[in-house]
Amino acid sequence: MDEESLIEAAQQGKIDAFNELVLFYQQQVYNLAYRIMGDPASAADATQDAFISAYQSIDHFRGGSFKSYLMRTVTNKCYDELRRRKRRPAISFEDFGEVDEESNPVLTSERERPEEVLERQDVTHAIEDGIKTLPIDQRITLVLADVQGMSYQEIAKITDVALGTVKSRLARARCKLRDYLQEQQGELLPPRYRHA
Amino acid sequence: MGKRLLEREKSRRDKDEWLSAYLDDELNAEERAWLERKLASDPAWRADLEALRRTVSLLNDLPQAPVPRNFILPLSMEKRPRPARSARSKPAWVAPLLTAATALLALAFGVVLSLDLLFVGPAQFASAPASEAVSVAEMPRDDQTPLAENGVESGVESGVESEKRSAGEVEVVPEVEVEFDAEAAIPPTGIATPVTLIPPSEEAEMLTQYGATTTPAGYGAATAPPAEEGGRGVYISATPSPTSTVAAVAASTIITAIEEPAPPMPESAEDATPVMTESVQGREALLSTGDPRT
Question: What is the ipTM of this complex?
Fold first, then answer.
C-alpha cells in the first residue's frame, strides 16, 4: 500500500495504516527530536507525543509532504518542551544527564577502530554541546537544515516563518557553532577538524 | 565608538549570511560573482568561509541515532471513522431557516390568540347561555315530544333539525316570523343595544359576507332563519375557514356583537316560539271560546 493510501486509511481511523507510516518515519522523526532536545529520553517523549498528535489531527492533513507534516509536529513538540523548560529554570539540561554512549549505539560502530570511535565521539559531543548553546529558533533551523537536510522553503513551512528569517537564523546558528567549535578545537576537536 | 561596533557587527552578520547562502547555493548569479571576487581579494573572508564549510560538514556527518523503541500507537487509540457526509444530509442553511420559520409561526399564533382573547373572548362568554340552550334543546328527550310543541326555543334549532322534524312542526316557524314583534323580543336591558344599532341592510351584508344568513324582517335578531339556509338565525356565528385570518376573527367579532342579545333570547323566544304561539293561539281560543274559568 502506498503512502497516500495509508494516509487515507489513517484518516478513516485505521490505526494499523497509521502505524505503518510510524514505522517508516520514526527514524527521521526521532533523530530530529534527538538533535533538538539533546537527550534520548526527551527525544523519545517528543517523538511519541508527535505521533499521537499527528494521528489525532490527521483529518486536517490536506495533502502535500507527509514527512513535512510529521517534522512540523515533532518540531512543535520540541519547541513547546524547550520553552516550558525555559519558563522553569529549575529544570536544566544538565538535570537530564549526559548521553550514555553505552546505551546509545549510534555513537559506536563495529567497523571503526577504537581511536576513530573515540575521536568521532569527541566531535559529536562538541557539536551537540554547541547546538545546545544556540537559541531555540536557531537550533531548530540549524538541525532542520544541516542535520535533516531540508531546504529553506521546507524549513520556512515547518517553522512558519518567512524565507528571509530562515536564512538569517541559519547563518547566525552556523557562525555561532563555528565560533564555539573554534574555541574548543585545542581540547576537543581532532587535528583534521581544526583550522589550518 | 558604539556606532562603529554596531556597524562592524552588522557587517559581520551580513558576511555570515553571504557565506551561509553561498554554501547553500542560494545566491543568484550576480551575487555569487560579487562574493567570489570578494573571497579572491580578502583572505579573512576565505578563512571564515572554510570554517563555516567544515562546521556544516560536521553537522551533515552526525550519525543517525537509532530509535530506542517503536513508536507505534496502541490499537485502543483507534478513532471511530467519521461518517461520510451524505448528499442527502441537510445543508447548513436549513437549521437557521427552520428556526426562523418556527419563530414566525409562534409569533403569528401569539398575535391571533391575543386578538381572539381581546375581542372574541368576552362575546363568546356572553353567548354561552345560548349555546347551552342549544345543547339542551338538542338533547334527546324521553317523551320524544317535538321541540316546537314543548315550547323550547325553536330559533336556536339548526336547519337540519328543522328538516328532520315533521311538517307540522316546521309550519310553526313561519307563523312565528309573522307574529313576532321585534320590540317585544328585545329585552328592556341594554344588552340588546348592539342589535338595534346595526341597520338591517348592514347586518344582512355582514352576515352574507361571512356565510351566515338573516331574515329580511327588519331588526329580526330574534327571528329564526329559514330552515333551508342551515343557519341558526341570529345565533349563528360565521364559521371561520381552516385558513382563518385576523379578518375572519374580526368578522366573527362583529357577528358575535349581533349575537349579544342571545342571553335574553330564551325569554323572548318563549314568546316568539311555539309557546308564545300557543299562548297567542290560546288567547285567541279563549277569546273565541271564552275563559273556562269565567
Answer: 0.83
